[in-house]
Specification:
Layout (H helix, E strand, L loop, with lengths): L1 E7 L4 E7 L4 E8 L10 E5 L2 E5 L6 H12 L13 E6 L10 E3 L2 H9 L8 H14 L5 E4 L10 H4 L5 H7 L8 H15 L5 E7 L3 E7 L2 E5 L22 H9 L3 H10 L2 H6 L5 H9 L3 H25 L4 E5 H6 L1 H8 L17 H6 L11 E2 L8 E4 L4 H17 L3
Parallel strand pairs: 1-6, 6-8, 9-12, 12-14
Antiparallel strand pairs: 1-2, 2-3, 3-4, 4-5, 7-8, 9-10, 10-11, 13-14
The chain binds adenosine-5'-diphosphate.
The site of adenosine-5'-diphosphate (ADP) has 12 residues, from α10 and α12.
Length: 413
């Protein structure tokens, strides 16, 4: 079966097309600035070949149609017809109690629409694109793999806020957790790399948005994001955790209403807000090198928050076998990794980024798999906790979940 995985932003559409028999990626591409005028055309990659797509692109359905046209192009495409796509899987964010992996139906779309205030950057474009795709391609099943599903195993003491109980019972105010596909991938991959299915892993997904997850045996036990993806660590331009009572003071002093203040916290907070430079960590690192003290502070706060969560999760798990860094920042920023890992001798953690991996030592440690591109262990041989860099692959997780869900629908009852 071939599965198309869709990853949507408010003005972007990224996709991967997978052949699930071999779990190979047949094509990958992305379109940005949907619905906007832009100078440049954009590109999709099909079988390693770059192809241009003409602008403007009216909406997400038009973007998907263009990708399908490219994928079925007689000369360069990798599909003979659209019917070859067995299902489209979406890395959807939030539908409250309608979690798990679900066929997209009216109930799900209504829930995602109603609850858009929990994930305002994500739910609206997903709902719009899903509705458009259902109308345009009624024969292709659409599947939503909700980000919250992976965290359903978190015990109640780690998912309950100390809010009045009506908030919990009537409004479902609780820690839901996000980035499920990424953390699930890291759990599965670490089990493959080490040949162990009982590992205690602290997965640090550090990217445009960031979250940390404590996992045991590949199952989530606690995570940094709570009710909304705005919470936990500072995000690129979202605030992360803060005391909600600060809002009353700022409301009075600034004269702004709560919605405006919340919008500011969601769009002008986080790394952007602290640094005053950019929401992109590369720009902030460069500014800090040039002596910008706000940028320096933003880097320090971000690393300190990651360290604090790791400390919490070591306590939750009663120790850890591995800490894993993933996401654009986790994979690439040596500065953030070392700021996080320095000073953790209390758990015997030591890293050496420049150490070369020794295959014999890996074998002795029971590491069973050949490493894929970008994967490496950066802890020293005598570190009591292994530290890894493992590029995440959220799309393959969603593709697997989508295939399983569709097979259940199509298979014998
Ligand atoms: P998204 O969550 O949008 O998928 P990514 O996982 O690609 O984002 O992460 C984007 C972040 O990764 C940006 O803040 C970017 O600055 C950071 N990043 C990418 N490459 C590097 C690098 N070489 N050094 C430091 N940060 C990097």
């Amino acid at each position: 079966m071939k599965i198309l995985v869709a990853n949507l932003g408010s003005t972007s559409f990224k996709y991967g097309l997978f052949d699930m028999q071999t779990e190979t990626e047949l094509a990958r591409g992305g379109i940005d600035r949907i619905g906007q005028e832009a100078d440049s055309n954009c590109a999709v990659m099909i079988g390693g070949h770059r192809q241009e797509i003409q602008r403007p692109i009216a909406d997400h359905a038009a973007a998907v149609q263009m990708c399908l046209d490219q994928l079925t192009d007689a000369q360069t495409g990798c599909l003979s017809s659209v019917e070859e796509v067995g299902a489209v899987g979406f890395k959807a964010v939030f539908a409250g109690k309608l979690s798990g992996v679900r066929i997209v139906d009216d109930a799900l779309l209504d829930a995602m629409e109603t609850l858009a205030d929990v994930a305002p950057a994500h739910n609206p474009p997903y709902v719009k694109a899903m509705r458009q795709l259902r109308a345009a391609f009624p024969a292709i099943p659409l599947v939503a793999a909700l980000e919250t599903a992976f965290h359903e195993t978190i015990p109640e003491e780690y998912r309950t806020y100390a809010v009045p109980h009506e908030w919990r019972d009537m409004y479902d105010v609780r820690r839901w957790g996000y980035h499920g596909a990424s953390h699930r991938y890291i759990g599965t991959r670490m089990a493959q790399l080490t040949g162990r299915d009982d590992l205690k892993v602290i997965s640090c997904h550090l990217g445009g948005s960031s979250s940390i997850c404590a996992m045991e045996g590949g199952v989530s036990r606690s995570t940094s994001m709570g009710m909304t993806p705005q919470s936990g660590l500072p995000q690129n331009n979202r605030v992360g955790d803060m005391d909600p009572f600060a809002l009353r003071l700022v409301k009075r002093l600034s004269g702004k209403d709560y919605d405006t203040l919340l919008d500011e916290l969601a769009s002008q907070g986080g790394l952007l807000g602290m640094s005053g430079v950019s929401n992109d960590l590369r720009d902030i690192e460069q500014a800090a090198e040039r002596g910008n003290t706000q940028a320096e502070l933003a880097l320090k706060v971000y690393a300190a928050d990651i360290k604090r969560y790791i400390g919490q999760f070591l306590a939750v798990l009663n120790g850890a076998d591995a800490i894993v860094f993933t996401g654009g920042i986790g994979e690439n920023s040596t500065r953030i990794r070392s700021n996080v890992c320095d000073g953790m001798d209390y758990v015997g953690l030591r890293i050496n980024e420049s150490s070369v991996q020794n295959p014999e030592a890996s074998e002795r440690r029971g590491e069973t798999e050949t490493l894929s591109e970008g994967e490496r262990r950066i802890s020293t041989g005598d570190s009591r906790i292994d530290v890894w860099i493992v590029p995440t692959n959220e799309e393959i997780v969603v593709a697997r979940q989508t295939m399983n869900r569709v097979s259940r629908v199509q298979g014998p009852e």
